[in-house]
Amino acid sequence: MTDNSFPHDSFDDLLAANAEYQKSFKYSGLTGSAAKGLAIVTCMDSRINPLSVIGLRSGDAKILRNAGARVTEDVLRTLVLATYLLNVSRILVMPHTDCKMAENDEADFHKLIDEQYGVNTSSLEFRTSRDQLGALASDLNRIRSYPLLRDGVVVAGAIYDVKTGTITPYEG
């Protein structure tokens, strides 16, 4: 039988931090729209603070994160909603340096997880690529050619350097 109760022992630190956060909460006036008309597709890597990287604040942009900053079906679905309903007119795809998803092949991850944890993940597509710039070019093209995005949306790519904080525009 599965216990569906909230696992307080694993999350009480977060609940305590939220109680402190509530005391100075200042975002109740924000809407669900991207105030700066921007969506950022970036990696889940915890070294990236996407809004700070480009001088924005809460409410300014929509942030889509996944392993490797890849443009998946779910990212496209979300961008369609964002471009029609949430004021997004610009999309920045921003992978980063020192990314594990760009250092290994798909088969390497499946093998590692199977060997270390005994779990067969071969039914999943991790979308790894050792050619990070090639993957970025492909993802940018995938967005630009997606027929369901709102007309006039501007799409760009840049690589974020986790050691210096620099973003380098992809000129492809």
TrEMBL record:
Keywords: Metal-binding, Zinc
Keyword Ribosomal protein: no
GO molecular function term, any single one: carbonate dehydratase activity
Co-factor binding comment: Binds 1 zinc ion per subunit.
The enzyme's E.C. designation: 4.2.1.1
Entry-linked InterPro entries: Carbonic_anhydrase (IPR001765), Carbonic_anhydrase_sf (IPR036874)
EC class name: lyase
Reaction it catalyzes: hydrogencarbonate + H(+) = CO2 + H2O
SMART domains from the UniProt entry: Pro_CA
Pfam families the UniProt entry points to: Pro_CA
Known cofactor(s): Zn(2+)
Job description of the protein: Catalyzes the reversible hydration of carbon dioxide to form bicarbonate.
UniProt name for this protein: carbonic anhydrase
Organism for this UniProt entry: Candidatus Planktophila dulcis
